[in-house]
Amino acid sequence: MELFEHQPDPHANLLPYDGTVNYYGKILSAEEATNFFEKLMQNGAWKNDEVMMFGKHIVTSRKIAWYADAEMDYTYSQIKKTATVWLPELLELKNKVEELTGENFNSCLLNLYHDGSEGLGYHSDSEGDITKNSAIASLSLGAARKFVFKHKTTKERLEFILENGSLLLMKGETQRHWLHSLPPSKKIHSPRINLTFRSRNPTN
User: Which is nearest to 110 in space by CA: 15, 3, 198?
Assistant: First the structure.
């Protein structure tokens, strides 16, 4: 299912049950999206992602950068990361996303996929330090990529294409009941930056 055949309704729920996902379409012009993409590529505090998988420490080719209102740790897959202060361009995007969605965010995890060979397997953003049932806003810059939801119980799948400059909002019990993934694709030869704005509980 492509989200760009018709003008999207940001109030429409894309999920059939057990959660809420709203799609806002392109919230940035092509020129704006390219400008933000280039600034983040140049100025982002990019590091190769690290995960623990089957007891092994793995360093991925995909890169991440983690920002927040204040210093706070972010732990997933048993790897602890520490946030850095907001970049001006990230604050500008954060304010825009908050204005459009009516949500508030105190942190942002950026993922850099160099091409279609890099993706992300099924998971839910349900780490203990994420505020329960809080919204997660996903802003896409760069290459259009397929984004897939799979229900944890029924295994129902929903597929969407997220374009350059588009915004997707996941909220309510979505993370409790649905997994999501970014499948690899041999047809994609250009990079994508994904910004996921979140609300996290500060750690001591």
Answer: 198
